[in-house]
Amino acid sequence: MLWQRVDTEPLDIDTGVTPASARAIASALLRRAVPLLVRRDGRVEPLATATLYRIAGRVVLVTCRHIFEDGTATLGDLAIPLPAMHRLCWLARCARRVMVHPQRDLALVELASSAARDALLRAWQPVPIEADALDATDDLAASVYVLAGWPYAQMRRVDEIVYARPVVVFAGRRALASGAAGDAAALRLAYSRVARRTDGIDVHAPELDGVSGATVWEIRGLLDGATACVLRPAAIQCAFKHDAYTRAEPIGQARDLMKRVR
To answer: What is the pTM (predicted TM-score) of this model?
Structure first.
């Protein structure tokens, strides 16, 4: 199976991010948003999104736990496309172990040093992070966040080629209503059915199936008319409700898992 990325325009859900800023941020994040594929009955299909992180001299793939726990996939069935090489990298060739959080929807796949891992790092840019720095990520108070991933709704298969249009969404935090049932620790972002593209056109926002496991980034220092800012990993997307919210697990909840990476 060949993987072909299709150009996309970022979506804004009432944040007011400028088109220049949105496009610059999208360009950076799409080098880091890793599509995760699964083999089912001999056919390779899109499954989720993930991110490569460098920590303590090692490399881990961070995604959501539920893809391993609901019978969707086993490690031996997972692959990542290597677009420039026109082939897939099967995770079984470089994975040392899978670690899952006992309560949160978080999973880490630790990758062993190997030719397969090196090929992944050439294809997808890893994010450096320190385990101790995760202690500061529980305070999610930014006004604007951005999510980049690979939704099924924007993919089309023609013969052995999958044409995939990623989604990049800018949104603000949506607070849990007072007295409402829900996970107070989770990060919720607004997710409406209609969003404005950076070219000024209002469009229907896609369903986010396939974006589970994507990193949600906190944006700091984004000023009017400026493209320079600081992006910090904030959470891992795990669920959504159209015209309501997208929900993500704060990445600080993975600190104990990441401290086990040595």
So the answer is: 0.91
